[in-house]
Amino acid sequence: MSVKSYVFSGYVIEEEGQLSLAELSQACCVDAEWLMALVAEGILEPLAGESHCRFSGTSVYRARTVQRLQRDLGVNMAGAALALELLEEIDTLRARIAALEPGNSE
Questions:
Q1: Cα 53 to chain centroid, rounded
Q2: How far apart are CA 37 and CA 52, in angstroms?
Q3: What architecture is domain 18-100?
Q4: How far apart are CA 44 and CA 32, in angstroms?
Q5: How far is C-alpha 16 from the chain's CA centre?
Q6: Shortest CA distance to 62 belongs to which of 10, 41, 33?
Q7: Using CA of residue 66, residue 8, residue 12, residue 88, what is the dihedral sign?
Q8: How far apart are CA 106 and CA 104, in angstroms?
């Protein structure tokens, strides 16, 4: 019997963390120009008050979600922005429902 081994690598990014444009580009394996197109579309927002373009850790999730929407479904930027907004609304509603379910004490 043979045993297969797999090695995975990745980044652990905190939501509160900050990334430069270059770091975000590397984490998402995309060009900085594509990320700036997401900024222009309102999908990503640089952190306020920063002299250089810095992004929160949640920007990685948002950018990768847009990548999947475009690759898997052929969605354009505007459609991806709308889909991302709806997905986040679903997450918010699910969290509210979970908080209201019996047995959840917060």
A1: 17
A2: 17
A3: Orthogonal Bundle (1.10)
A4: 12
A5: 13
A6: 41
A7: positive
A8: 6
With beta carbons less than 8 A apart as the criterion, state whether 46 and 53 touch.
yes
What is the Cα–Cα distance from 31 to 14, expressed in whole angstroms? 22
Residues 6+ apart with CB under 8 A from 19: 13, 27, 54, 55, 56, 57, 59, 60
Q: Are 99 and 106 in contact (CB under 8 A)?
A: yes
Question: Measured between alpha carbons, how far is 43 from 10 in angstroms, rounded to an integer?
Answer: 23
Total-model pTM: 0.74
For 19-72, what is each residue's pLDDT tens digit?
Answer: 999 999 999 999 999 999 999 999 999 987 665 789 998 999 999 999 999 999
- Work out whether the CA dihedral 66, 67, 72, 73 comes out positive or negative: positive
For 4-34, the DSSP string reads -----------TT-EEEHHHHHHHHT--HHH
Euclidean distance between CA atoms 23 and 55, whole angstroms: 9
- For the chain, the structural domain boundaries read 18-100
Angstrom distance (rounded) from CA 40 to CA 27? 20
